[in-house]
């Protein structure tokens, strides 16, 4: 079945999801959130970096209006994700729920995989992939929230190591894109903007601004290629 195929092909993503989810569960509980509140954050927000920012800002006593704005700002990249894969997916009454599972990794996997599938299998494939990722994130969060203190007591370095799993997963997903000059230029632009903004102290703004810069760069290079330039798409 197509949903089984989606779940199977998304399984390698769990190597990045689960360690970071465990790390989030540990961090949230240490910041003063209850186990159930921590699990609820992963279930309803389900936004990786935004969850860490959310917990840090709430724990620091930041105004709720600022917390909401910053969380939405970091997730603004999803405005691009949806329209990018929408042409490959059929209409469905379940989309208000299914769109909740559109993460960076699922988007990257879907963008390369959906065009290869028959039209009738795409919705099932996406559902299987996104549900597996979502459940693994919630389960990892629960494990970190419940057993995090015990884990960190036995392995003190665990909390320092696990957050690197997600950046490593991003690198694995992005590496094949560097075979294209257009993608290489766009990714290089994104990395450069993010590094400069971070070095100047604009850590929270670096993610959405770098993503917007990379998207604009990719659009311009693709436009140049269509106009007869030498860049490949």
Automatic annotation (TrEMBL):
The keyword Transmembrane applies. It comes from the Bacteria. The keyword Transit peptide does not apply. The chain crosses the membrane at residues 20-45, 52-74, 123-148, 154-175, 182-201, 207-225. It is a multi-pass membrane protein. It holds the Pfam family AzlC. InterPro entries: Brnchd-chn_aa_trnsp_permease. This is 4-azaleucine resistance probable transporter AzlC. The lineage of its organism: Bacteria, Pseudomonadati, Pseudomonadota, Gammaproteobacteria, Alkalimonas.
């Amino acid at each position: 079945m197509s949903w089984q195929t989606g779940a199977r092909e998304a399984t390698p993503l769990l190597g990045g999801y689960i360690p970071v989810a465990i790390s989030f569960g540990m961090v949230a509980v240490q910041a003063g959130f209850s186990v159930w509140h921590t699990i609820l954050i992963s279930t309803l927000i389900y936004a990786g970096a935004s969850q860490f920012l959310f917990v840090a800002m709430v724990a620091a006593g930041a105004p709720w209006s600022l917390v909401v704005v910053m969380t939405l700002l970091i997730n603004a990249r999803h405005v691009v994700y949806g329209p990018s894969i929408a042409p490959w997916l059929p209409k469905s009454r379940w989309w208000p729920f299914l769109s909740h599972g559109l993460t960076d990794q699922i988007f990257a996997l879907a963008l390369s995989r959906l065009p290869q599938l028959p039209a009738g299998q795409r919705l099932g494939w996406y559902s299987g992939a996104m549900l597996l990722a979502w459940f693994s994130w919630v389960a990892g969060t629960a494990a970190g929230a419940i057993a995090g203190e015990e884990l960190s007591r036995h392995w003190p370095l665990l909390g320092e190591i696990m957050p690197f799993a997600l950046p490593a997963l991003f690198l694995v997903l992005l590496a094949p894109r560097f075979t294209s000059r257009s993608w290489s230029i766009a990714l290089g632009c994104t990395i450069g903007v993010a590094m400069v903004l971070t070095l100047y102290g604009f850590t929270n703004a670096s993610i959405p601004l770098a993503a917007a810069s990379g998207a604009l760069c990719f659009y311009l290079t693709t436009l140049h290629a269509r106009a007869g330039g030498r860049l490949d798409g």
